[in-house]
Specification:
The structure is a homodimer. With about 350 residues, chain A is of the alpha/beta class. Chain A is built from eleven helices and twelve strands. Chain A has helices at about 5-15, 15-25, 30-45, 50-60, 75-90, 105-115, 165-175, 195-210, 225-235, 250-260, 295-310, and strands at about 65-70, 95-100, 120-125, 145-150, 160, 185, 220, 245, 270-275, 290-295, 320-325, 325-330. Chains A and B meet through helix 4, helix 5, strand 2, helix 6 and helix 10 of A and helix 4, helix 5, strand 2, helix 6 and helix 10 of B. Chain A binds a DNA duplex (30 and 30 nucleotides) through helix 2 and helix 4.
Chain lengths: ~350, ~350
DNA sequence: TGTTGGATGTTAAACGTTTTACATTATCTC
DNA sequence: GAGATAATGTAAAACGTTTAACATCCAACA
């Protein structure tokens, strides 16, 4: 059986193909009677309109592409889940653009929007995947694009994320308020804007508290469990051990904590640990993790809504959507133990 | 600037559109000289071929859809990450079909393959999203489809997953070997084939060991942290408390462990816990989780490879791809403490 | 009775490619 | 130099829709 199309339905129902099309997309343009006739014919043979042909004609693919570093990261997956959900609710599908941090793949996925395969892009990266200016694309002829969690350097693009600077300040202050001075830092990939800003926030908080940052206690890592693990190992070998560790993600924090435990350190008795993100696991681990919560679902939803509006031609009323973060004090942080330096 | 197409490039390079097309898809069909001319023209204006038109003409979308219960589930996300990776390596994109268990959405996503939007389906569900037989689709006119982790009931479809029955036997035997008799069970959604088979495996192992299953100790839950949490709460209220809990996923297990800890139970001192999946976190939690490891990446890779072969017209040499599972004994399980019933 | 206009249906031109079949030219063989 | 063959290019027909423009019919209205 050759693939059946609108033509076959038209023949079967004894009408023109235009009528069939109308019966589907534009009831009201066709009498109730013919509409039913068409639908019946379609139903009988299990007709499914060809989406590609439709998209080609209408220049709308009905897809968006989510460019994201790693679907298997718990923070990422929470966001993409929300993206998918709100896209679906508005009739869009989402193409998964897992880049593993590769700029090459970021560009490949972004290109889908230029080839008609996607109507817009949610970009969770700090890199612009298009050449802007210099005889190439102009900034305002980009495909609809919203920047999530990271900042690609163009204020003309809507972006949504938390205030990383302040969030880091809050995290640091929490530790400082508990009396910690020897605070270690484990960052994510320092190419990301999120890590850079958090680092700035941390520095500011420390400066404001009059505490000097011990460079040997800041390790430039990556946003993974393994990153946290490696960081903790290196930290523990320092002569001057930290009394607290501020991690730029919960996965990092959990990686750290595993090493600390393995080495016999008590968290938070010996060392306090604070994370970032508030992934679902954070409150289930032992001890429950103190963290800076990010509203992952809201971020995803907002990204998607913004993008779909953009696709529909609605300019967003504001470009910077800063979502609220929140310090969640659980049990992985505690006042510094004065006698610890024994 | 109107969207530029092959026609514009043809004009710009002074050749026919056929030649432009050949220059891209079929070099060799065109002289090196003209090819360069075309490429130069295309490059100059940043031409990107319209994928939809191409797909329409060739009847190949270059997409597959991954129908999966929940991207934010750690086991799922590991699989889908591998799917994306291998699909990408073979020039395919993946559409994200997060269903949250809804049959409706499963059908919607599956329909993409009938509308030309996707060339094939990876179905991680036990439900067939098409009407088979009864005047409707025949089983062998389904779109290319491979069944991952669950079994939709058709032996004609390739499927890949572990041997859930044996895996559960192994898990149960581990506990039994440690001397446990009061073994609780926390299942996932019992509509899934994975949970049903694991339950069968558990029953078999218990029967073989001559241990009677205490019905009050089996709770029918769902594959989530919350599911584990709720299950543990209900379990702890039983008069006859379990000395071990077998959970059908690591997330369930971690949910359980959090409750146990909160209530002052030591794992594994008071109660042993074993999970399923070996999600990345499993070895990082306290205590590191004993679990039945599933090769998530291999499962994803195999699903994708199988599907792409199917799309290319290669019949798989075998239909059942059972991937190896492995009992990973870590520290959440221990011999039963005889004096515990005090 | 002629005019207007709404309701319903159809024709045909797009949308931007790929690909078959054919045309032209160049190269080779004898 | 004839004929065959290879190399290169092109015209035009698809692919399966949507949609603007037009046609027809009929009721309503003056």
């Amino acid at each position: 059986m050759a693939k059946i199309g609108i033509k076959d339905i038209a023949a079967k129902a004894g009408v023109s193909i235009a009528t069939v099309s109308h019966a589907f997309r534009n009831p009201g343009r066709v009498s109730e009677q013919t509409r039913r006739k068409v639908l019946a014919a379609a139903d009988e043979v299990g007709y499914a309109p060809n989406r590609l042909a439709r998209s080609l004609r209408t220049a709308r693919s009905g897809c968006i592409v989510a460019i994201i570093p790693d679907v298997a990261d718990n923070h990422n997956s929470g966001i993409i889940k929300a993206i998918e959900k709100t896209a679906h609710a508005r009739g869009y599908s989402v193409l998964l653009g897992d880049t593993q941090g590769s700029p090459q793949r970021e560009r490949e996925f972004a290109a889908m929007a230029r080839s008609g395969q996607a109507d817009g892009i949610i970009l969770m990266s700090h890199r612009m995947p298009f050449r802007i200016g210099e005889g190439q694309l102009d900034i305002d002829e980009l495909p609809p694009l919203v920047n999530g969690c990271e900042f690609a350097g163009y204020d003309e693009l809507p972006m949504v994320g938390i205030d990383d600077f302040t969030a880091a300040v809050d995290a640091a202050n929490h530790l400082i308020d508990l009396g910690h001075k020897d605070i270690a830092l484990v960052t994510g990939d320092m190419a990301t804007t999120s890590s850079r800003r958090r680092l700035d926030g941390f520095s500011r908080a420390m400066a404001d508290a009059g505490i000097e940052i011990n460079d040997r206690l800041v390790v430039y890592g990556e946003y993974t469990l393994g990153g946290g693990e490696a960081a903790a190992r290196s930290l523990l070998m320092e002569k001057q051990r930290p009394s607290a560790i501020l991690c730029f993600s919960d996965e990092i924090a959990l990686g750290c904590m595993a090493v600390l435990r393995e080495r016999g350190f008590d968290v938070p008795g010996d060392i306090s640990v604070i994370g970032f993100d508030n992934i679902p696991f954070a409150r289930y681990v032992a001890p429950p993790l103190t963290t800076i919560a990010q509203p992952a679902a809201d971020i995803g939803t907002t990204c998607a809504a913004l993008l779909l509006d953009l696709i529909d031609g609605k300019r967003p009323d504001k470009m910077r959507h800063v979502m609220p973060h929140e310090l969640l004090v659980r049990e992985s942080t505690a006042p510094v133990f004065d006698g610890r330096r024994t």
